[in-house]
């Protein structure tokens, strides 16, 4: 039987392991199989009460019911059932639409000042006009810029910063 669950908003990994009576390496392996388990804050993984309850359910499915982690994941998905998709229109008020439009317009103006292509409201590039009102030539993409070559046609040697970093043996498999 699991230890009594203290009523708190978040738990540390050590507390989750103590409450669920599992080893830390087991919890870490479950985090790989269940990516939504826990939240990383400030470089440390913390767990909400719902995460802790899910860990206890996974433990039951794996250790008591004899399921694999993949089987436990499928069972949890079946138990959760299909999540209804809520239409976005219910949450966006006309006032919010106007504010979003003003923000989009301001961002388009900033993008135009920075020399990027102006965007229309649907996200497609709009033709840019110069100061005289005539259409400007499109900006050159980074892909179109060729790597400079030496006089004999060869590329220059990579500098230390451009070279691929050497992998060092860390002692881990």
Present the secondary structure layout.
Elements: E1 10-12, H1 13-20, H2 24-33, E2 39-41, E3 44-48, H3 49-64, H4 69-80, H5 94-113
Antiparallel strand pairs: 1-3, 2-3
Tell me roughly what share of residues is in helical segments: 25-40%
Uncertain segments are: 140-145
Strand proportion: 5-15%
Multimer state: single chain
Terminal residue distance: 36 Å
Q: How are helices and strands ordered from N to C?
A: EHHEEHHH
The count of DSSP E runs of length 2 or more, i.e. the number of strands, is 3
CATH architecture of the domain at 10-80: Orthogonal Bundle
CATH C-level label of the domain at 10-80: Mainly Alpha
CATH topology-level name of the domain at 10-80: Multidrug-efflux Transporter Regulator, Chain: A, Domain 2
Overall SS class: mainly alpha
The mean pLDDT is: 75
| Order of strands, widest sheet | 1-3-2
Largest sheet properties:
3 strands, antiparallel
Overall shape: it is extended
Walk me through this protein's architecture.
- This protein is mainly alpha-helical and 173 residues long.
- It has a domain of 71 residues: Multidrug-efflux Transporter Regulator, Chain: A, Domain 2, CATH 1.10.1660.10.
- The protein is built from 5 helices and 3 strands, in the order E-H-H-E-E-H-H-H.
- The protein has a 3-stranded antiparallel sheet with strand order 1-3-2.
- A hairpin with a 2-residue loop joins strand 2 and strand 3.
- The radius of gyration is 27 Å and the shape is extended.
- The two termini are 36 Å apart.
- About 3% of the residues have low confidence.
């Amino acid at each position: 039987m699991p230890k009594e669950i203290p009523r708190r908003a978040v738990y540390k990994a050590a507390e989750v392991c103590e409450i669920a009576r599992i080893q830390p390496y087991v919890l870490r392996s479950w985090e790989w199989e269940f990516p939504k388990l826990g939240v990383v804050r400030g470089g440390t993984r913390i767990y909400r009460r719902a995460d802790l309850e899910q860990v206890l359910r996974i433990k039951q499915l794996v250790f008591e019911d004899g399921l694999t982690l993949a089987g436990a994941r499928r069972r949890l998905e079946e138990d959760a059932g299909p999540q209804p998709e809520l239409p976005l229109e219910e949450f966006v008020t006309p006032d919010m639409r106007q504010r979003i439009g003003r923000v989009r317009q301001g961002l388009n103006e900033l993008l135009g000042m920075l020399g990027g292509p102006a965007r229309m409201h649907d996200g497609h590039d709009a033709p840019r006009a110069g100061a005289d009102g005539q259409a400007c030539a499109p900006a050159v993409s980074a892909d179109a810029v060729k790597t400079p070559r030496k006089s004999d046609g060869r590329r220059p040697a990579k500098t230390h910063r451009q070279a691929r970093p050497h992998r060092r043996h860390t002692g881990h498999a």
